[in-house]
Design a protein that fits this description.
Layout: E1 2-5, H1 10-20, E2 26-29, E3 47-50, H2 58-66, E4 71-74, H3 84-90, E5 93-95, H4 102-117, H5 120-128, E6 146-150, H6 154-165, E7 169-173, H7 179-183, E8 187-188, H8 191-197, E9 200-203, H9 217-222, E10 227-231, H10 240-248, E11 252-257, H11 279-285, E12 290-292, H12 301-321
Parallel strand pairs: 1-2, 1-3, 3-4, 4-5, 6-7, 6-9, 7-8, 9-10, 10-11, 11-12
Helix pairs in contact: 1-12, 4-6
Bound molecules: 1,4-dihydronicotinamide adenine dinucleotide.
């Protein structure tokens, strides 16, 4: 199948070309992200392969469908950037990679927790400047702390497995209880209770209309003084302005994020020569107790190989059968 690969970074080419060696799809790479302004670049491709910050709204989907596209292949798990209702109405089939080494994101989430609780990001810079003073680097131990996991699917349950090894008390909030988590002794509670008793809160739910700004002023007000908040799910699960207020009042004692509401304008590019125009992001960068990574949770060799393989398999299966088990169905929207 002829596939337009959007937002293609060098590593995407490397892993997709390797996975395609024995399959033989025709891959055409575009570095540019797909959005209304760039939609003409993929005219006439039967399959369009996209990533987290390509924006497939109704206008883009109409153009694609009008020019013969039949398949949207997401090379990620989340699908909040595609208007699924419109795609469905237009007969555009959408497939995704539901689980590709969830440990990649789970381990990154735990890395953020460990870096923040022992101030590694500050210690690294201090030591390089010849400053070996410990004042300000006082940490806390994870053993015995209560960690609240919001969303215990593939990634959240992997986080639970790792933190169980650290001796944490684990609680979770999820409309669906996960058997592996129950076996680990995870206790399911309401979001309010989770916020009230957790020393660390880590977010692993998808971005849906229900989870948009799930963590905002109300949730933050319920939290323990000095709570650590980790978000590696999607930026808009958190109201960033409310979090900034929480950081200023010290209600939030540490923040680790791999995702950001407006990350589409920033992440996956080298902007080091430019002035960042996003003042909210700029404010976040000023806090000593905030650690930000640029959506790299998925970025391991194992995950990239798995994403490339599943993406091309999804396309082959759709080409052969017209359906695929990794389709984004209307069921997933509920
Ligand atoms: P999953 O579908 O296996 O699990 C998501 C869980 O969230 C499910 O158990 C679901 O019941 C639960 N959930 C849904 N609504 C909820 C709510 N209102 N409150 C609490 N829980 C709720 O998804 P998976 O693979 O674990 O991924 C989770 C999210 O992580 C993805 O949707 C994506 O946004 C993000 N992600 C981030 C990556 C990164 O590089 N930072 C890479 C991959 C995924």
């Amino acid at each position: 199948m002829k596939i337009a690969v959007c937002s293609a970074q060098p590593y995407d080419r490397q892993f997709l070309l390797a996975a395609n060696r024995d399959i033989g799809h025709e891959l055409v790479f575009f570095e540019t992200s797909l959005c209304e302004e760039t939609q003409q670049m993929v005219r006439g491709f039967p399959a369009v392969c996209v990533f987290v910050n390509d924006r497939l709204n109704a206008a883009v989907l109409n153009t694609l469908a009008g020019h013969g596209t039949r398949l949207i292949a997401l090379r990620c798990a989340g699908f909040n950037n595609v208007d699924i209702l419109t795609a469905n109405d237009l007969g555009l089939y959408v497939v995704r990679v539901p689980a590709y080494s969830p440990h990649s994101v789970a381990e990154h989430s735990v890395a953020l927790i460990l870096a923040l609780n022992r101030h590694l990001h500050r210690a690294y810079n201090r030591v390089r400047n010849g400053n070996f003073a410990l004042q300000g680097l006082l940490g806390f131990e994870l053993r015995g702390k209560t960690v609240g996991i919001v969303g215990t699917g593939h990634i959240g349950s992997a986080v639970a497995g790792i933190l169980h090894g650290f001796g944490c008390r684990l609680i979770a909030h999820d409309p669906q209880q996960n058997a592996e988590c129950l076996n680990l002794g995870v206790e399911y509670v309401s979001l309010e209770r989770l916020c009230a008793v957790s020393d660390i809160i880590t977010l692993h739910c998808p971005l849906t209309p229900d989870t948009h700004y799930l963590i905002g002023t109300t949730a933050i007000a319920c939290m323990k003084q000095g709570v650590m908040l980790i978000n590696t799910s999607r930026g808009a699960v958190v109201d960033t302005r409310a979090v900034i207020e929480g950081l200023k009042s010290a209600k939030i004692g540490a923040l680790g994020i791999d995702v950001y509401e407006q990350e589409g304008d920033l992440f996956f590019q080298d902007l080091s020569e430019r002035v960042i125009q996003d003042d909210i992001f700029g404010r976040l960068l000023t806090f000593p107790n905030v650690l930000i990574t640029g959506h790299q949770g998925f970025f391991t060799e194992e995950a990239l190989a798995s994403i490339a393989q599943t993406t091309l398999q999804n396309i082959s299966i759709f080409e052969r059968d017209g359906v695929c088990e990794n389709a984004v169905t209307m069921e997933l929207l509920r």
